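Late entry, written up from scratch paper. The run itself happened at the end of the previous shift, but nothing got recorded in the book at the time, so transcribing now.
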Amino acid sequence: MKKSSTIIIAAMLTCSLAFAADNTTKDDGPQKIWDQNYAAFTDLINYNGNLYVAFREGNGHTTRSKDPFYGQARIMKSTNKGKTWQSVALIKECGKDLRDPKLSIMPDGRLMVNMGCTWNHDGNIYRRQPHVAFSKDGENWTQALPCLLTGKDVSYMDWLWRVVWHKGVAYSVSYQRGINKLILFKSTDGIIWEQLTLLKTEGFANETAIQFDGDEMILLVREEKHKDFGLSHLGKALPPYTDWQWINTDLRLGGPCFLIMPDGNYLVGSRDYQESQLGCALFSMTPEGKTKRLYRFEAGKDCSYTGLVMENETLYVSYYSSHDGGIGNIYFQTLPVEPLLNGQLYEQFRKSNQPK
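Output as recorded:
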């Protein structure tokens, strides 16, 4: 496939900014790595030994501008475990709002980014269709290609929110705003998707994170009930992933991401609703859905949507926040795993943020 003219490689001066931080310890606090326009909804991956972060860049949380490039997907790269970052690509399509880019590695070694895509008119969404782009090196990307979804419950408002590959097959859960259906899909090429099953959930279930424990698929589903946010759900199923067991958790989610830890519990990154002001936090969740907050990041207002990568005893985290005066900035933080899981980091954070 030829590269589209809509892919802007960040060799241009306006996009070739590098950000650095003094990483003298494993937990220095957050590092701001991007602060232009409205930047939000991150994801993070280790690809060929380098860290890549993807996020949406636009003029606001939602699209209400007549600018033909409403929302774009920016890709940044770090070759030194997050000490410095370089913008390497900007994916955009005229007349389309590309949202919530999520990164995954395909069986053939290519890097894939899946994005929600909306068409808007005067601030109102009249259509959604998932899009994907591909790269062999993390820097040179194809144009954003529309996905073809097949199945009896497919609509004009589907959004494949996050993709996970398992044994050569991609899996993703689509949600439909206004229709309130949650659908599990599979694909072998990232472009053509086949419906596996309609998932039964309560309220308006939407953003869904996926992990595999062996062949068992685990879903962590954000839910909203009417005008209020509901508590999240854990779904579990074995192949062929059509018979699901559901567990109600005690955690209210926003932009969920999670990893399965060696002890069998889940490390969850999410928007944090447990205090008077919104935040971004890490939680430990048992397989039965019981949670404990482990760490709250320096974040607030419009924030969260973490990306998580764990390597040995180090956790890498990306997120966005508007707490420091910006409308949306991208942050990266490195955390040591052991004191994170035993609660030491959270206690340190609480003490350092006590009123003086």
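Helices lie at 337-341, 344-352.
(Scratch paper discarded after transcription.)
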